[in-house]
Structure of Phosphoglycerate kinase:
Amino acid sequence: MNIPTLDDLNFSNSKVLVRIDINSPVDSKTGKLLDDSRIKAHVETIRELVSRGNGVVLVSHQGRPGDNDFTDLEEHSRLLQKHLDMEVEFVGDVMGPYARERIRNMKLGSVLLLDNVRFVSEELIEASPLQHSRSFLVRRLQPLFQGYVNDAFATAHRSQASLVGFPLVLRSSAGRVMEKEVSALAKVFNEGEEPKVFIMGGGKVLDSLRIIENLVKRRLADRILTGGLIAELFAVAKGLDLGKDNLQVLEKAGVLSLVPRARKLLLSGAPVEIPVDFKVEKGGQVYEEPANKVTAVIKDVGSTTVGIYSSFIRDAKIIVMRGPMGVIEDERFRESSRTLLKNSLESPGYLIVGGGHMISLLGGIGPLDSSKVHVSTGGGALLLFLAGERLPALEALDISAREVLKK
Ligand SMILES: Nc1ncnc2c1ncn2[C@@H]1O[C@H](COP(=O)(O)OP(=O)(O)O)[C@@H](O)[C@H]1O
Ligand SMILES: O=C(OP(=O)(O)O)[C@H](O)COP(=O)(O)O
């Protein structure tokens, strides 16, 4: 693939639309952002574009409709302003008359943040770059810009309008985050030794299952240590009775229908490990139970599991960690993810850690040795990239290089 970078396009004194990913963990009680790592990550790209006299218009999503973390981007704009140390105008609109008026009238050298792009229904459709290039989002915004930059590595696995539509109609390049992630990950992973251990948790069960299927098919993982909801799915697939409450959680997440796929993976001999115990909560009380005797709602993996997983980590040459083991928004269920992260950092292997929730746990850990760890902004995108899948956002930039830049 031929992905143009900012060095290739050299945007200057232009209006540039920049797709970033500042989707961040949200405290479900207060609605406040719990971490600003992804916001900080984009500062370099934005500063560089501003320093070349460009008017920078930022577009991002936050959460998914119906979820607790589906919010507007006002708080994000304040944090971005703090990290950039310059004014960021928050526009509470994405593509309507107000947004277009603010973009038309903005000064070169200034920064403007549009609202959550998933407020626009077209953004929620997975479609081809060509289809998205004809969306209202692209048709309304494209005439206001001379260029498009995609810096949203963490969403590069989605084929959504703001990611794949613009490269077909604007001169486009990758931003610095996108560029660095792609080159660092390809190098580390391809040149890395075995065993490769993947630690996978979190709430996005369908994504995780797809990734595990890919890893298994390509024989890229020596061990896959599961936590979070994906561990519960595999536990059910293995025939463990997790009780009515936990089945309800899986049903509510719409993932029970994935049990046969998980079962097929287990039967095919996939190296998937499931927890031997869990931390559960009942009536405000927290305690540990063996995986075959669960009587309450699972909130984290148990301490025996952490011990076993840690022994696999110690022997690994490459450790990839994505998605927390438990409901880390609650301090009582943060410990196992934090311990596994610490043990991974202390082990002799190289660590690649990614995803909004996992990187939020790095905060209290102190300075990291960049020769031993790569912190990725991506979670699902990171793993799909490592598993060798083609990421639609990168493909769209590749098409752009061939079809738009050559014209
Ligand atoms: N056992 C569990 N039950 C319910 N939710 C869980 C469980 N374990 C983890 N989670 C949730 O998973 C979410 C993080 O998952 P995800 O978004 O996939 O990770 P990341 O942002 O790191 O890629 C958190 O909100 C956390 O509360
Ligand atoms: O947080 C993200 O992905 P991740 O949870 O895999 O790290 C990205 O912002 C993508 O969000 P999405 O999975 O709702 O498309």
Q: What stands out?
A: The pocket of adenosine-5'-diphosphate (ligand 1) is lined by residues 201-204, 228-229, 298-299, 322-324, 326-329, 355-358, 379 (CB under 6 Å).
